[in-house]
């Protein structure tokens, strides 16, 4: 499919680009730093822009089959919702954090909210905006992301609190989960939580 990746040069976005191209998608990369993608011949188009600015996003969204926002937030959600509606593009997958709905372990969640409250409130706002957007959305909530080699599998559940899997998640495996969600219509309207896979388990 024709796939737009927002935040394409971020640490997760770069994995999404690589894996999406390997899966045969026609990839448009949207980034503030297009120079980081110089020499990449596996991308259809590279677009420079600010993902919170609808005028920057509008041209990149046109003609796409789906959008993966490898960075989250209400500003990005607002710009995507407006421009995707205009362009008639319906499928969007956005990143978020498992800490947004989590209630336990109480101490760890409380500390995370104390430190990252502003970011989590903004992610919660973005999730709410997508829920009422009328688009075919999926929000993929991750545990703590790490820059380690991926395992090629993840643990996914749909509970507020993680029901299994590792507390950390390699970014390569998160990118895999984002692409899997974009390709799976059964994930429309869902907010799966993604954890790292434990040995011998998915």
UniProtKB/TrEMBL annotation:
Cited Gene3D superfamilies: NAD(P)-binding Rossmann-like Domain
GO terms for MF: biliverdin reductase [NAD(P)H] activity; riboflavin reductase (NADPH) activity
Pfam family, one: NAD_binding_10
Any coiled-coil regions, as ranges: none
NAD(P)-binding domain mapped to chain residues: 7-184
Name assigned to this protein: NAD-dependent epimerase/dehydratase family protein
Organism placement in taxonomy: Bacteria, Bacillati, Actinomycetota, Actinomycetes, Streptosporangiales
């Amino acid at each position: 499919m024709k796939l737009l990746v927002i935040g394409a040069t971020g640490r997760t976005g770069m994995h999404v680009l690589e894996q999406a191209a390997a899966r045969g998608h026609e990839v448009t990369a949207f980034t503030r730093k297009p120079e980081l993608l110089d020499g990449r011949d596996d991308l259809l188009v590279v677009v420079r822009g600010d993902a919170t600015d609808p005028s920057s996003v509008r041209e990149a969204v046109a003609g796409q089959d789906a959008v993966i926002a490898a960075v989250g937030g209400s500003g990005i959600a607002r710009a995507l919702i407006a421009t995707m509606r205009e362009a008639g593009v319906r499928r969007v997958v956005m990143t978020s954090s498992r800490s947004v709905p989590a209630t336990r372990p109480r101490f760890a969640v409380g500390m995370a909210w104390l430190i990252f409250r502003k970011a989590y409130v903004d992610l919660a706002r973005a999730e709410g905006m997508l829920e009422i957007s009328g688009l075919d959305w999926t929000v993929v909530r991750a545990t703590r992301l790490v820059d380690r080699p991926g395992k090629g599998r993840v643990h996914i559940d749909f509970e507020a609190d993680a029901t299994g899997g590792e507390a950390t998640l390699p970014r390569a495996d998160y990118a895999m989960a984002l692409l899997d969600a974009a390709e799976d219509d059964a994930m429309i309207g869902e907010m799966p939580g993604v954890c790292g896979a434990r040995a011998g388990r998915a």
